[in-house]
Amino acid sequence: MKKLVLITLTSVSVLFAVMVVFNLQAANGSKESKPTVSGTALPDSIHKFVQRACMDCHSDDGNFMAKGKVNFSGWDKYDASKQMDKAKEICKEVSKNSMPPGKWRKNNPDKLPTPAEVEMICKWANSLQK
């Protein structure tokens, strides 16, 4: 019994220490220390498409893995170079029908990108410059 209590207390202490360290880094601005040049907001036509077909997963409230690839909630915080790279990757993925993924496609057939929207996304992606 004593061993179980000791293990539990140790685990809680380690977890607490990790939380304190990460909060201190955020409070000290360690992630914000590099000056960045913000990019631009999404054009209205792209924004409407993203709202319909992407934000379920690629937003602050979305899937952890998906928003790690691209998070449209913070798109305007990406610098211009990162926006260009992400936009080209988006074009590639929607062109291959890799995005949205199969399960989402099956559950949301009315929200799938049309060929015209895929073309619009790729034209927009190719128009971005570093």
Please tell me about this protein's structure.
The protein is built from six helices and no strands. With 130 residues, the protein is mostly helical. It has two domains: 1-34; 36-127, no CATH class. Mean pLDDT is 80; it is low at 24-37.
Count of strand segments: 0
Distance between the termini: 62 Å
The amount of helix comes to 55-70%
Number of helical segments?
A: 6
Provide a concise account of the structure shown.
It is built from six helices and no strands. About 11% of the residues have low confidence.
Question: What are its keywords?
Answer:
130 residues, mainly alpha, 59% helix, elongated
Itemize the secondary structure elements and their pairings.
Blueprint (H helix, E strand, L loop, with lengths): L1 H26 L16 H10 L10 H6 L10 H16 L6 H6 L7 H13 L3
Helix pairs in contact: 4-6
